[in-house]
Amino acid sequence: MIPELLSALPLTLAIIFVALVTGFCLALVVTTLRVRRIPLLSQLADLYVSYARSVPVVLQLFVAFYGLPLVAGLFEMGDSLSAAAASMVGLSLYHGGYLSEVMRPAFLAVERGQHDAADSLGYSFRQKMLRIVAPQAGHIALPGYGNAIIYLIHNVALVMYIGAADVMATAHLIMERDYNQYQFGTYLVLAVIYSLLCLIAWLIVRFFERRHAKYSSKTVAAKKTFTPSL
Q1: CA dist 149 to 155, 161, 197, 202, Å?
Q2: What is the total count of domains within the chain?
Q3: pTM score of the predicted model
Q4: Mean pLDDT of 105-131
Q5: pLDDT at 170 > cutoff 60
Q6: Among 7, 122, 127, 134, which residue's CB has the most CB atoms within a 10 Å radius?
Q7: Distance in angstroms (rounded) separating the CA atoms of residues 59 and 54
Q8: In angstroms, rounded to a whole number, what is the distance separating the alpha carbons of residues 26 and 90?
Q9: Domain coverage including residue 193
């Protein structure tokens, strides 16, 4: 059964990758709107985050699978959406809303003095975010971001309910074909696959955590040894 399961792994990885990238970009936009408190847009962003956090992920997948074709039909853009595309859209919306709740507290955790110092130097909002706030907020958000990736990998198993032929759906097809003779073995292989995916994600996040901590320690040491000239 292992070769058959591995044949469905590329689709699972593709859904994870698209949801990671799209959700991250969406979370950046939503977090910016929520932090800057732009009238109406901030309220809409809060409503979206509430939807992503409150509605079960499997229900969000059903909404994407059945709702998006209706919206596309109103604009004469077609009335069908593949299960794989619906999975990417649904999980991207979920991941973006969940990740926004990781980014926003990290942004607010940066001391107000850092913002004031950047403003006094004449930095624009974009420059302040990229040069001052983002490096500090990113280090704070890394553990939560790692958890968000792992939750996303777990929730990819739900795309089988809308017909996406991922690893989980392939495993169920194998068990039905073999009259459920090897259920334990099949689920054990699935557990190994998902565990390896989560382990890889954790190792990548851990690498960036250590790298940022090493860079921060060097920066602090340089500041301590620096003596301003009179």
Answers
A1: 10, 21, 10, 9
A2: 1
A3: 0.84
A4: 82
A5: yes
A6: 134
A7: 10
A8: 13
A9: 2-111+120-225
